[in-house]
What does this fold into?
Amino acid sequence: MTEHIEWSETEAPAPSAPSAVTPADAADAARLVAFGLQPKLQPARDQEYAELLRRYREDGAFARLADAVAAGLGLVVLEVSPRAGMAVTAAEDSVFAVRMGDYARRTSADGGDRFLHGLAHLAVAAMAFPRPEDLADDGYIGRVSVNGVDAFVRQACRRLEERAEEQGENTDPATEAPGLEAAWRIWARRSAAGATKDARRLAGSTTGIVGKAVAFLTDSGFLQRTGDDNGGTYRTTARYQLQVRDMAGSAAMAELLELGVVPVTDGTPTLLPPQDTDDLELAADAGLPFHASSHS
Amino acid sequence: MTSPASTDSVPPQFTAGARPAPGPAADEGLARRLRALACTAPLHDLDARKANLAGEYSVYGMAEVALSAIDLVTLNMDFDTGADHDQIVARLIPRIAAQAPQRPVAEHERVARWVLENLINVGSVDRGFRAVYGTFTTDGSYVRRDYDFKLIEEVPGPGGTVYLRTTDEAVNVLVGALDTDVTSAQIAAEVKLEVLINRGRLADAQLAAEQARYRTVQYSETLRRALEATRRNVRAVDWLNSVPDMIAEALDHVADRYRHENAILTNIRKARDESEDPEHKRRAAELVDIVKDCIRRHTQLQSRLLEAGPLFRAEQDRQAFATPMTSSGIDLYGHLVAPILPLPLERAVRVTDAFFARGTGFRTPVSVRVSDLVDLLLTPPVEREHLGAEMPEPDLIATPDDSRFSEEQLAAAKELLDLPADAPRRLSGLLAEARRTGDLDLPYLVALLAVHAASPAVGTAYRQGEEKLLFAVDDGTELDDPEFGGADLIVGTALLDAAGMAADRTEAA
It folds into this structure.
């Protein structure tokens, strides 16, 4: 506690009277939340941030105060630690929340584009944390690349396409009901890349959509760019792991369960769709000699 | 299905596949044919729409150009990347030029780009095509369905570049009967090739060789995708049986084809060298190139196959032998990605929306004060200094001309060395002629230029599009001269194919 008094310029509440909250404490708590709102700021790089984090962890009253400030602003505290900093995220309907309409154009008019952007974010997370353990291991750093994410989703789509072909299903959607088109087809039929006049990525292509997602996540302090290979390579930060594990994953799971889809796994880490565990045939197109044509 | 992977482990779908086909069986076949027909529509469409282009383009056979473009892309698809856009345009131009030789090259290029862009269908969001067709469902009602397909697709290459690949649909349009077992089809094609060559029917042989190459390309394309998939996810493949089987089989295939094609190569080379007929010779030479290309592709395939094993083991070590951890309970792929992909769009989008809403983090909202806004709007834009700071006028000092030879001497030497292409000369003769001019330095310059020409700058001449090039060859004759020693070089002029080189350069660009 002596350190804490030393740090604080005004006289902080003495240990004997923890209930008395001074305006200075409130200011510090708000400052800590403000640090948390700069997701790219590393606690190790900022002395004051690091001190406030330490105070949060050592001083219970201060921690409650900071939590209250965050809650009042419409933020959810995910974790407060030296590695992740003051990891906060926007609660639903908070002013800080990201809305799909602000994120990308065309998303309100076209359900397909809205889905592609959402799936891109989900796929980046799935690629960054391929196994359940990766999501649980605090020390795990995932690596993703833009082209890798696209190829990974395409592979999954191709498996579904092949399965549909094997079963003789006609997956072409009815013209008047585009909403009934199988989701994988939306991704599969969007082109992977496209030439543009100024050599940038075509925004509407799937690599363009994934590229937008990773750039956005980088701005959120969730990814760090490590190189230009494969359309850009990135590594995950502690915040991203927390966000996916504690917020996004469970929210999406809840929504899926509400749709009546209950994914069942036996708990073993599997990247395969659960219904495929007994069917260890080759992955997409591995069947020699040909990619199955539609005329066999 | 003739896939060997499906013979050893029959997926449950097959055993449970007694489910009746949706709709009458005939309708199924009709749908398939309608889809096949739809794939040709973009080609017909090109000829129909060429009238709408500004200019008189009806002389060009657009469908022909389009098919040839699909050919070129298919043949130029590499193991790792696809075909280069500009290269395809450059290779298309000769055919387009042949259709309308009197038209300017710029127009030919414009046609090539127009056709290629239309095959990609640049204007649409999906960069693909859609055809609508109708089928009867199981309950007898009539449903219109959308069939989406692509002919040429753009794929990301290394360094952010975009390459072209032909799709399966395009290859089916191109070579109708491709949906057969590749191995047997290829063996058949090669047996046919050998027979044809033995009988000296090279025109047919070339056709067969080209078909064999299409299959080769498609074969490596299949393997490329398979290896790519295994690199991403070691559990997505059966490393115990299927993959080793597949690799062994593919290696056998490569070895077999390699032996076979080398035999063919020897045969055609013989045919090429022994043939009297120049047309035969040319065809045989082309055939040699095709078969060489096949061999190159096989070699490439083989090296990828050999890399596959170590790659699997490394991935296995990384993924499977990591220390077991407490699980978070969420398997993002198994619990989320895989289940939502088969869902209908309108339901799947709810899950992705939920993930998006909570998985993207937060954005601090931007708030604007009116006073700031006014200031911002009233501030004149900062003049961007495009040109940078002013450069000081440089002080130029005339350097003394200390050249060994004068411009006149160089001109005289050049004139001496301006030899006709069909009449090379000895250095000794050139030196004697140089001495006759009375200029004592000229022989030195001639000797210098001749020695320089012993290693002609072919690359520079190629880049600059020179039409001829001075060269010198040592045939072992000693130079007998009072001033110079060494070899009595043969100096001559080589004519270069400037037009051909220019075409090559545009391709390489």
In short: The longest strand of chain A covers residues 75-81. Chain A touches chain B through 133 residues (CB under 8 Å).
